[in-house]
Amino acid sequence: xxxxxxxxxxxxxxxxxxxxxxxxxxxxxxxxxxxxxxxxxxxxxxxxxxxxxxxxxxxxxxxxxxxxxxxxxxxxxxxxxxxxxxxxxxxxxxxxxxxxxxxxxxxxxxxxxxxxxxxxxxxxxxxxxxxxxxxxxxxxxxxxxxxxxxxxxxxxxxxxxxxxxxxxxxxxxxxxxxxxxxxxxxxxxxxxxxxxxxxxxxxxxxxxxxxxxxxxxxxxxxxxxxxxxxxxxxxxxxxxxxxxxxxxxxxxxxxxxxxxxxxxxxxxxxxxxxxxxxxxxxxxxxxxxxxxxxxxxxxxxxxxxxxxxxxxxxxxxxxxxxxxxxxxxxxxxxxxxxxxxxxxxxxxxxxxxxxxxxxxxxxxxxxxxxxxxxxxxxxxxxxxxxxxxxxxxxxxxxxxxxxxxxxxxxxxxxxxxxxxxxxxxxxxxxxxxxxxxxx
Length: 439
Prior knowledge:
6-stranded antiparallel β-sheet, 2 domains, Beta-Lactamase, Rossmann fold, 23% strand, 8-stranded mixed β-sheet
């Protein structure tokens, strides 16, 4: 597949300047009302007290949907409902108790069953957390006076926890508010260097970082761009759970199929995804995460077969992504895995989120490297022992390093967060192989 890409041995260094710093904005809250009308089961949110004035004696689907619709309009990022506790919301980077009473254990069990399946409460209590998405239709009056339906989407995880008075049969429902469809790359100020490399005609594109580093948002913005291109493509995604509804994206041209992964879901596990996708003749395959040997083997095989494959991985930087994947293979297969990666990977992006100096927003710090015939040849010459050092050097000379990106955004970042990140990166540069790969 190397012949499909022209030699860029004379390619100049990428421009390390950014047109605009990358920030992740929280949902915009509605303006504070001077008078709150006591409407519905809950009344309207009181901005001064950070609570709802009412709470129905029992919460079923109707009451829950009204509550979530009001929460969505307020601009809340997280909702937490626990057995034996009042409901919490997270707004402007702080948690608040917003209900007048605690939710009873049976009440929470019933809500989980309503939101997902009747069997889900028992599964959760047996020690198996369950993830899914939940959609709430909200009726709003349009500009022309007619009613319109807007959909509030929530990413949900249900986990067993201690209930009231130390009972061992409690459940916590954590809901993250997500947009109906992904933001554009420009809306999240994704650096031009990443935008330019993010659409290979084939091969593997990996976004790496720790949990809650914005990987899914970045990946979603790339999928959005694919979905609206004039030349329509077929996109198949596998997610746990499905976060954004790509089909809801305005002006979509692509043929899109999104599948939820997990026991009892649309497809049982990550290992089954790529074999399923290949039989369906896609142009683009998106696999939400690779973390096992089988998933890594499958994405490499799909990329070698000529598909464009996107995925995410837990790794501390671009160079460690290779090490993270290769180390999963048996010792006698690692040289083959190294060669397969060398010729299939088209781009690796690392992303982390740091606290903005305003204490509310977050700033994305990136590292990236595009791979073509020049990079392939350098890695081939480096061999097994010099792979990490060669990748680090390529990031510095032909990509963009985390340290450089961090320095370019210093004025936006909370000083304590900046200092912590700077120390971590400079220590890593001194002792690169001592880092935890996030396994």
